[in-house]
């Protein structure tokens, strides 16, 4: 996997596919990971097979929040009071985007090999959209490119695939700004 240094962090420039079969909470997941994003899961996750492809990982993803803080102030001849003021917090995260493909029926011979090959080609279209913040467009582009590629390779089952993109992030602690 080639990495590209940017001013804010590190982003992968080529897809690094980790091929997993099973349920969405399967290999490589820890309790510290946070799932977020857009899902297109089938109604029943127990049936069929699921493949997950790592598309891109972005380091130093900033997050911010504000809260109302209070300062205790002495009032002459009257005692103390709490005065509200805004305070800001920040943290950095590593955000990783995954494509997930589910098939609810038996896969034809050589399907996994063709799926991996087509997923690499479809990722070339989806990754720039993800980096631009257009995840819904990336889902549509990835799904269309993957299905078209599989159909061209003779895999008619491609029309029955459930495809989605989701992200996981691992964050540091909140620090006051």
What does this structure look like?
- With 177 residues, the protein is an alpha+beta fold.
- Helix content is 22%, strand content 44%.
- It contains two helices and eight strands, in the order E-E-E-E-E-E-H-H-E-E.
- The strands form two sheets. Strands 3, 4, 5, 6, 7 and 8 form a six-stranded antiparallel β-sheet that branches. The protein has a two-stranded antiparallel ribbon with strand order 1-2.
- A hairpin with a 3-residue loop joins strand 5 (49-75) and strand 6.
- Helix 1 (111-131) packs antiparallel against helix 2 (135-152).
- The two termini are 34 Å apart.
- Mean pLDDT is 79; it is low at 1-33 and 37-46.
Q: What descriptive keywords fit this protein?
A:
single chain; 177 residues; alpha+beta; six-stranded antiparallel β-sheet; two-stranded antiparallel ribbon; rod-shaped; disordered N terminus
